[in-house]
UniProtKB/TrEMBL annotation:
This is Macrolide ABC transporter ATP-binding protein. It comes from the Bacteria. InterPro entries: AAA+_ATPase, ABC_transporter-like_ATP-bd, ABC_transporter-like_CS, ABC_transpr_LolD-like, MacB-like_ATP-bd, P-loop_NTPase. GO terms for molecular function: ATP binding; ATP hydrolysis activity; transmembrane transporter activity. Pfam families: ABC_tran (PF00005).
Length: 225
């Protein structure tokens, strides 16, 4: 499903050339649950941005469902992000003035899905993540765990090929983190492909496979915590 071939990424920071990624090659199969681990500056978030078509590599090739992403124009990339990739962020990225239901439906604004179908999907997903009773609440009226559940429902609204989760429990307490990881594990059991970035061993342990990174390189494609 996702194939990275000799991916490199560098940028200039002041007078310094920073090599964020160095010759990364790996594959992620359909219905895998993969966690990327590494310290700050290891390159895991940069790699996540490339896999999510939010950034482009300087070198190498990224294939998403067989498509060479580097050869696609901005409009096509935007369409791929919306149709094939679901994003879950550490800071939730919910719009504060919208209700839970409206936040979940948001990605469908840019599709030809009807209003009735959007409502149906959003209600079903809020029920799936245990928040149907909070559908009319805004983010500031919900706990961190509830906000992350809304974000997960939003990530699933377009039936994505892959869900990319960047530190999905980073802003949550231990009990809530366990609940969110149980939800992601259940989604994986239902067939969802999940790629997650984390620096916590206990969170990474929920994945089938752990990729360990350091200094922009892959140290281990099947690391055991």
């Amino acid at each position: 499903m996702l194939e990275l071939r000799h991916i490199s990424k560098s940028f200039v920071n002041g007078t310094e050339q920073v090599h964020a990624l160095n010759d990364i090659s790996l594959s992620i199969q359909t219905n895998e649950f993969v966690a990327f681990m590494g310290s700050s500056g290891s390159g895991k978030s940069t790699l996540m941005n490339i896999m999510g078509c939010l950034d482009a590599p300087n070198g190498g090739q990224y294939l998403l469902d067989g498509q060479d992403v580097a050869k696609l124009d901005d409009d096509t990339l935007s369409s791929i992000r919306n149709k094939h990739i679901g994003f879950i962020f550490q800071t939730f990225h919910l719009l504060p003035k919208l209700t839970a239901l409206e936040n979940v439906k948001l990605p469908l604004r840019y599709t030809d899905v009807s209003s009735e179908e959007a409502d149906k999907r959003a209600h079903a997903l809020l029920d799936k993540v245990g928040l149907s009773h909070r559908k009319s609440h805004r983010p500031n009226e919900m706990s961190g765990g509830q906000r992350q559940r809304v974000a997960i429902a939003r990530a699933l609204i377009n039936n994505p090929t892959v869900v990319l989760a960047d530190e999905p429990t980073g802003n949550l307490d231990s009990k809530t983190s366990v609940e969110i990881m149980a939800l992601l594990t259940d989604l994986h059991k239902q067939g969802q492909t999940i790629v997650m970035v984390t620096h916590e061993d206990d969170i990474a342990a929920h994945a089938q496979r752990i990729v360990m990174m350091r200094d922009g390189k892959v140290l281990d494609l099947d690391y055991k915590v």
